[in-house]
């Protein structure tokens, strides 16, 4: 069987035209699924991942939690959301859930039928809660988990946003100086017989811009476009990341980021009743691929009878602080709570590191960009000072 894809099937039911999304490896099998149910299939189109990602799973969870807390059962809650939804993509997702629920499936099974919308972590959290009847509490735990992970993601993005803005503005200022101010300024030296080297440089650049201005502009745009395209390439990102990880401080902060995501995910799953070995396997989705072999080894050690703390320590997926807390959690039976404490502890450490980086790097970046702009301005006026000195 090939890779499972999502297909949108348009069919007729009692003379009415309807649409549904289904999972199949080929469009023929997707069509066959509906034909077996007795429907007349009109069209089968593949749904791209970008198409379904417009749906806000976080909003869906918030609304579902509110309705469940109000006393509605799952089917009634989703029917209410379906009646209130105006978004076509969200409506298709809700109708797909209702169809599975009407067929006798549980909510986790209905969610598993839409893997492009609902992550495996959410599906397993819901599945574990269905056995205890604590669906609302499980959704709250997952919502809290998503909030914390989203806050971490926003902090990292926010740290990188300001330097990008400063570099962009500084680059535009430099381009303006070199493209307009320097050529205009070079006209001052066109009739001078004896020029200093700095004046000759400015005059040469001014003439070059006047003669080949369009070519220089196109070359600049092409260079910037090439840089942007290269930065989006996966292998370029990997090379840049590998180069950045040669700095010990950055390597340590990346390791803390991995620990925060891993232990928060592990705590969420264990608290929901997911077995430890299965939780460790699911936690692979939130760590880089370079750590998957280590997690597989941890699972093997745990299945062989070793404790979670010893297994994680043997694969260097813990720290002295995390090791102590895990041992306490294993003795007290509060392993899930200790995993959350470990994540909170290193979350604060990571936040302090980000604040320190921001306080040091942002002024340094301003000095560098300001120094480059100041150097260009200085080169503009230096020939005048040299000529004035020679005349005196």
TrEMBL record:
A Pfam family this chain is assigned to: T2SSF
Protein name, UniProt field: Type II secretion system F family protein
Location of the protein in the cell: Cell membrane
Main location: membrane
Taxonomic lineage: Bacteria, Pseudomonadati, Pseudomonadota, Gammaproteobacteria, Enterobacterales
Family listed: Belongs to the GSP F family.
Annotated transmembrane regions: 160-182, 213-231, 364-384
Keywords, in A-Z order: Cell membrane, Membrane, Transmembrane, Transmembrane helix
InterPro entries, sorted: GspF/PilC (IPR003004), T2SS_GspF_dom (IPR018076), T2SS_GspF_sf (IPR042094)
Species name: Kosakonia calanthes
Gene3D superfamilies referenced in this protein's UniProt entry, alphabetically: Type II secretion system (T2SS), domain F
Domain Type II secretion system protein GspF: 60-183, 262-383
Membrane topology, from the record: Multi-pass membrane protein
């Amino acid at each position: 069987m090939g890779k499972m894809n999502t297909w949108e099937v348009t069919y007729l039911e009692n003379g009415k035209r309807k649409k549904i999304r289904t999972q199949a490896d080929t469009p023929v099998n997707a069509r066959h699924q509906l034909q077996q149910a007795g429907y007349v299939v009109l069209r089968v189109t593949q749904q791209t991942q970008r198409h379904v990602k417009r749906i806000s799973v976080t909003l869906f969870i918030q609304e579902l939690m509110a309705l469940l807390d109000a006393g509605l059962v799952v089917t009634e809650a989703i029917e209410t959301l379906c009646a209130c939804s105006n978004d076509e993509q969200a409506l298709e997702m809700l109708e797909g859930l209702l169809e599975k629920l009407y067929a006798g499936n549980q909510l986790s099974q209905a969610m598993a039928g839409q893997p492009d919308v609902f992550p495996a972590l959410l599906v397993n959290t819901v599945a574990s809660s269905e056995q205890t009847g604590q669906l609302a509490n499980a959704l709250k735990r997952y919502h809290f988990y998503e909030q914390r992970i989203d806050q971490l993601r926003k902090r990292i993005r926010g740290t990188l946003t300001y330097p990008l803005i400063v570099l962009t503005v500084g680059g535009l200022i430099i381009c303006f100086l070199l493209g307009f101010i320097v050529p205009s300024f070079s006209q001052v030296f066109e009739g001078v017989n004896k020029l200093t080297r700095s004046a000759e440089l400015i005059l040469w650049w001014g003439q070059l811009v006047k003669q080949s201005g369009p070519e220089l502009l196109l070359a600049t745009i092409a260079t910037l476009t090439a840089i942007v395209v290269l930065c989006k390439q996966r292998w370029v990102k990997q090379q840049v990341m590998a180069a950045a990880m040669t700095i010990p401080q950055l390597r340590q902060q990346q390791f803390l980021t991995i620990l925060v995501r891993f232990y928060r995910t592990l705590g969420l799953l264990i608290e929901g009743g997911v077995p430890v070995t299965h939780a460790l396997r699911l936690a692979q989705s939130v760590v880089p691929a370079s750590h998957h072999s280590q997690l597989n080894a941890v699972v093997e050690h745990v299945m062989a009878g070793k404790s979670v703390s010893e297994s994680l320590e043997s694969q260097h997926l813990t720290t002295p602080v995390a090791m102590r807390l895990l041992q306490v959690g294993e003795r007290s039976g509060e392993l899930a709570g200790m995993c959350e404490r470990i994540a909170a502890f290193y979350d604060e450490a990571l936040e302090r590191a980000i604040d320190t980086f921001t306080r040091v790097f942002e002024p340094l970046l301003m000095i560098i960009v300001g120094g480059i702009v100041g150097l260009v301005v200085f080169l503009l006026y230096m020939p005048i000072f040299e000529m004035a000195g020679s005349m005196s």
